[in-house]
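FYI - complex with NAP, inputs then prediction.
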Amino acid sequence: MIKIALIGSGNLAQHLIRTFTELALSNSNIELIQVFSRDKKKLSTLLDSEKIISNFQDLKKADLYLIAVSDDAIATVSSQLPFTDRLVVHTSGAASLLSLDAKNRRGVFYPLQSFSKDKIVDFKSVPICLESEKSADFVVLNSVANAISNSVFAIDSEQRKALHVAAVFVNNFTNHLYQLANDICTEHQVPFETLIPLIQETAHKITTLNPEQAQTGPAKRNDKSTIEAHESFLTNKNQSTIYKLLTQSIQNHGKKL
Ligand SMILES: NC(=O)c1ccc[n+]([C@@H]2O[C@H](COP(=O)([O-])OP(=O)(O)OC[C@H]3O[C@@H](n4cnc5c(N)ncnc54)[C@H](OP(=O)(O)O)[C@@H]3O)[C@@H](O)[C@H]2O)c1
């Protein structure tokens, strides 16, 4: 039996609680024994009250302590744990393994997905990136990750940093472009919904073609008159700057500059 104690009650922690609770129903050898939350009420609908603690001193012996708190709090929280030489991991894409206090055996359990409390995510399809200082600990992390996901990777801190930056491009920046497109639609009284099939096809296409093959549009074709027409259409300075920057990036991609 692998006993897990989880620390945190935010977006990711709540998804992990749901996932481990469902797993327990399938006779798994993995058990979520406790969850730490500064505010116990936050978890009252998700867990039996005896499993929720708000004092680190109440943490029981577990095989794995999963810290799912804000990146900036990882170091403080890990240093407050009242034990040594146990397996303690964080769940961040951005923080190094070294941000954890060295009094425990350190590792990382990073699920590469965007989690919001109220949007159900099937963990089976979430890639989980693992790292550990000790190889025996990797075995434990691997067992837990494989129990909840079909997609598990060994990724060190440097690689994880690169993945996290890449994730900002595909998730946060893409979403911001949706926002700008929405603004343009609103300004010109066309429904943003008409773009949704295109958004879906763009995301779907990348599962079978690489980004270079999938790229289309005036910048890729170097349709100068269309590009000029778009640039003069955009009177908003921010939209125009981003249009020019991305057009240039598409055209320069792969060239030695
Ligand atoms: N959400 C995602 O999409 C996602 C994806 C992959 C990885 N992650 C990683 O998962 C971790 C948690 O992210 P999240 O999105 O779940 O964050 P979140 O929703 O903002 O929740 C943050 C949690 O940290 C707790 N916390 C903050 N400072 C603390 C402190 N000093 N002591 C104890 N607890 C503290 C908060 O407690 P209170 O509620 O009491 O303030 C809350 O439970 C981060 O490392 C993040 O990088 C998140």
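The longest strand covers residues 30-36. The chain has a mean pLDDT of 96.
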